[in-house]
Amino acid sequence: MEGTLNLVGFGLAAIGPGIATGLIFAAYINGVARQPEARSVLQPIAFLGFALAEALALFGLVLAFVL
Amino acid sequence: MRSSVFLSAEGEGFVPPSSNDFELPPIFGDNPFTTKPIFLVFLSVILVSVFFILSSRKAAIVPSKFQFAGESIYAFVRNDLARDVIGHEFMRFVPYLFTLFTFILTNNIFGIVPFLQFPTMSRVSFPYVLAITVYLVFHYVGIRKQGAWKYFKEIMFMPGVPKAAYILITPLELLTFLLVRPLTLSLRLFANMFAGHLLLLVFILGGEHLLQGVIGLKLISPFAFFIGIVLTFFEFMVQCLQAYIFTLLAALYIAGALADEH
Amino acid sequence: MATRDDNAAWSIIGYLLSGLLFWGGVGWGLDKWLGTTFLLLTGLILGAGSGIYLVWLRFGRE
């Protein structure tokens, strides 16, 4: 077995954004299913939340390579 | 290279499959152009052409099953991918998208066909070439439609943004548009095929290795084979999905280049 | 319309990634050139920030 601890760290760091993305889209789908006309209101919010959560995952990815 | 895996069964301890398993030796002598992936690409071209020539040659009003299979794939690409995404100019791009879809699909499915069992797209150069063709097509279409200056101006300078923010944003738009898009397009296909093939190798070769062990391990090995079979069906789903996503994103990029405001 | 949403998710990742890569790369290069160490982190944070800003411009405004 070879590899660096950075990759283990990235794996651990990706858990949080993974769960967060799941929660965000779960809430989005829930909201749209309950109230389809709210889609246009919810969609930008959902994508922004997704972007914020995903930024953390990509931060981990870049730092795993850089450090 | 491959021998390391087979040697492991003779009591050297299990060597897990690695990226070395993807570097297959040449079939004829030392010529590096005669490896298995290259033959698979040619085979896929022959298979796709023969299938669609045969299924469309004796086209009838009441289609045979063969013709129906060919036509439903074509209708899927034309209606669900090209027409719904690109809009009224879609007919020009149907041949390209159709070729892309059937070619990638055939090459992906080679990963679970017995005796072939190698997804061609798990060698990264094939997705690269496909992404380069997509890249050339959608930039060419966009520049032809809008003119080079206007085309790039709409990418670089979004309206309604403070002037100072352009310093931060314009490089990102250009980088995304010119580099990250084709790169993620090809790497997504490559990574899915690579990881899927590796996963199957782990379970099948691991099960084989367990079968060589003591009696306790022999009892476990059917579970490894069972999971391997389940994952084979899962792989089939992933392979179809990736062919679909690649074609869908190609169509979306073409649609974005054709749209007047982006 | 579902296809547009798929594309949005992918292009968000693309924007964020290119933000981190570009401004992180600039910070890394300046670090190499000037012999400092803090510019890489500054560049990464700046890149993530401008990537999120760009996502907001593209998908959050209307």
Automatic annotation (TrEMBL), chain A:
Membrane topology type: Multi-pass membrane protein
Protein's UniProt keywords contain Membrane: yes
InterPro entries the UniProt entry points to: ATP_synth_csu_bac/chlpt (IPR005953), ATP_synth_F0_csu (IPR000454), ATP_synth_F0_csu_DDCD_BS (IPR020537), ATP_synth_F0_csu_sf (IPR038662), ATPase_proteolipid_c-like_dom (IPR002379), F/V-ATP_Csub_sf (IPR035921)
Site description Reversibly protonated during proton transport, residues in chain: 54
GO CC annotations on file: plasma membrane; proton-transporting ATP synthase complex; proton-transporting two-sector ATPase complex, proton-transporting domain
Role: F(1)F(0) ATP synthase produces ATP from ADP in the presence of a proton or sodium gradient. F-type ATPases consist of two structural domains, F(1) containing the extramembraneous catalytic core and F(0) containing the membrane proton channel, linked together by a central stalk and a peripheral stalk. During catalysis, ATP synthesis in the catalytic domain of F(1) is coupled via a rotary mechanism of the central stalk subunits to proton translocation. Key component of the F(0) channel; it plays a direct role in translocation across the membrane. A homomeric c-ring of between 10-14 subunits forms the central stalk rotor element with the F(1) delta and epsilon subunits.
Name assigned to this protein: ATP synthase subunit c
Species for this entry: Actinobacteria bacterium BACL2 MAG-120802-bin41
This protein's encoding gene: atpE
